[in-house]
Every structure is written in C-alpha cells, then in structure tokens.
Amino acid sequence: MPDTPRYDLILKNGHVIDAAQGINGKRDVGIANGRVADVEPDLPADRAERAIDVAGKYVVPGLIDLHTHVYAGVSIFGIEADDLCPKTGVTTSIDVGSAGWVNFAGLKRYVIRPSQTRILAFVHLSAIGLTFRRGELIDEAWIQPQECAKVVRENRDVALGVKVRLYRGVGGDADLADLLKLTVDAAQRCESPLMVHISGSHVPLTQFLPLLRPGDIITHCCHGLDPATILDAKKKVLPEVREARDRGIVFDIGHGAGSFHFDVGRVALEEGFPPDTISSDIHTFSINGPVFDLPTTMSKFLNLGMPLEEAVERTTLRPARAIGKEDEMGSLRPGLPADVAVLDLRTGQWEMRDSYRNARMGDRRLVCALSVRNGKVWYNAL
C-alpha cells in the first residue's frame, strides 16, 4: 500500500532565498495544512498530493509590501488588492493611512476581512484618512491623537500604528513639526510605531529626525525634492540620516507616483545607505506607471546595483521586522503560514522610469511566476 502523502504541495528544484534562515541555494519546499513543513535539498515528489517543478526560478517568502493603498471605493488612492497581489507575489499588503480613525471600521469590515490578501494597516492621524488627494489635516477637528490611538489599540489584530503625511499645505498654515509631534503623541498613546511621508515637505528632514523614535518609519526616503532629502548639497548622505538609522529609524522607499528618484537611489547605494525596506506605494495614480507593482520596484534596485538577495530581504524579512511580525511572516521557516512567491529573473532590455519621468534601460527584471497563499496555489503562470 502506498504511503499517505506527507505534503499537500511541494515546490521542487527552485533556488530558495530566505534571509531569516540564511538560505540562498537550491531547495525544495514542502507544504502541509497551510503551513511550511520542510525546506530541504530534495523532497520526494511522490510524497505530495501535488508537486510543481520550479527549476530556474527563485522561491522566496511571500512578498510584504510595506506601503500600499487598498481602500478601494472610499480613498481616492484605493486599488483592489486581490486584483493585483496574487499575480505579483505580494501575500501581505500594508495599507498606510488610507483610513483614518473615523472610517477605519469600514476598511476592516469591507476590505481587510473579505480579502484573500493579508491586509494590515497604519491608521491616519486625520479622522478622514486619505479620502481626497490633499488637505487631510486642514481641519483641526480631524486631529485627535487620543482617538487615533484608541482605534489602533482596539484593532490590534490588523492595526499596526499611525501614519501622517508631512507635505507643504497638508494642514494649511500648521507647522509640520507640530503635526509630527501630534503624530508621535498618538503613537506613544497606543505604544506603536509611526510612518511619516516626507516627500513634498518644505521643511528639512533634519528637523523631523530628532522627533522620531526607534522603530518609526520614514517613507519616500529616496524622493528627489529639496529640502526634505536624505542628501546634502554635495549629494552625500546626511550624517544626521545615518545617525537616525543607527538609533533604529527605518528608511522605506515608497516609490509611488511622485516619490522615487533614480539618482537619489543610486547615490544612496553607492554611499552604503540602501533602503531598509523596498515598497511600492501602489495606488490609483501609480499602478499604470511608473510603479506597476512591487517586483518592478525591486527590479529597479537590481538595475541600480543591489544584489538580488538583498532586494528579497528588503521585501520579506525586513518589512516583517519593521511591523513586529517576523515570527509570523517574511520567512519560509517550517511552521509559518505557507505564503510563497516564485519569481522569474528575466534578462533583456526594458525601459524603467522613476517618479519624475526619468527613463533608464535595465537588463534584469523580476516577474512573478507563481504564488502560494496559506498553502494554496494562488496564481500560476508557469
């Protein structure tokens, strides 16, 4: 009598990259009961209900996109997560501030709960979140740190912390540093990190940095607009920026439609200051270009000189760590939910653009070939 299958699925002959386990080489991945069961050099195909040959492909933990907007139908920025994530290998999408403390309940009920994609969120300091494109802090009545903190505390299962955008005019004539202090107040009240958008600010980044705490996240770190930039006048990384990272501030890409410049990204890499996390800032104004998806954003960094294993780490382990969930995701460690992205690294010439319409030619591009969510094949283009 044949042995009972040990695995529901085996991904065979792929090249596994898993920074959490220090794996970078050929492995098979065995999946059972929705979780990773084994990662070994050779697992017998006849011990699985289904075996898929992924030779020539990279098998990585399901991608975690740390900056997205998925409150479709309510936020002007919102896209449908389940329309995009399966075919791009993103198994966890972090919505950052699309919902504020007044309308967060709708995000949880109508988007997070029914979604196949795992969706977590930062709650906006503004009551209304990112309902419209600008001006979410222009009414002082919308800014109530205690109410924002309350929503985070009462939704710990999906709420990660507090989000704020600090650009010129976001709060009318309000001082941006004062708005950041209110955000820190909210984050401290709920004992959570904050994420701050710095692109478009008319205040130097060095004025914001002393207010941030270890674990807080700066998104859009490689935008191309002065004065809130990580670079000095000589195009070198500011010493205050390096000091901020040394004390635990997280620097995230957040590409988006207006917040990533090739030259800033290139200089950061050359200066030994790569982003801690690579995220897409995918939304209605960036999904059809220049962002498209997270693998495309990763590809831009490959073509700027970042090694593949580092790009994978910055979209798996690093974002999981940034949100305090590295024991739940970001790895193929046995026992964790079986969220997997199988990536094809294609060669050839392709044009890529940053958020400022600058074009470059690249010769490597990542494309999702297959994704697995909770142990089930979610997308398959093999």
TrEMBL record:
Recorded GO molecular functions are: deacetylase activity; hydrolase activity, acting on carbon-nitrogen (but not peptide) bonds; metal ion binding
Concerning InterPro entries, the annotation shows: Amidohydro_3 (IPR013108), Deacetylase_Atu3266-like (IPR020043), Metal-dep_hydrolase_composite (IPR011059), Metal_Hydrolase (IPR032466)
Judging by the UniProt lineage, the source's domain of life is Bacteria
Q: Does the keyword Metal-binding apply?
A: yes
Looking at the record, the residues that make up the Amidohydrolase domain are: 306-378
Keywords noted in UniProt: Metal-binding, Zinc
Where does the record place the modification N6-carboxylysine?
163
Q: Which residues bind Zn(2+) 2?
A: 163, 197, 220
Q: Does the keyword Repressor apply?
A: no
Residues marked Transition state stabilizer (site): 165
The entry's Zn(2+) 1-binding residues are: 67, 69, 163, 281
Record-linked PANTHER family: DIHYDROOROTASE-RELATED (PTHR42717), IMIDAZOLONEPROPIONASE AND RELATED AMIDOHYDROLASES (PTHR42717:SF1)
**What's the name of the protein?**
Dihydroorotase
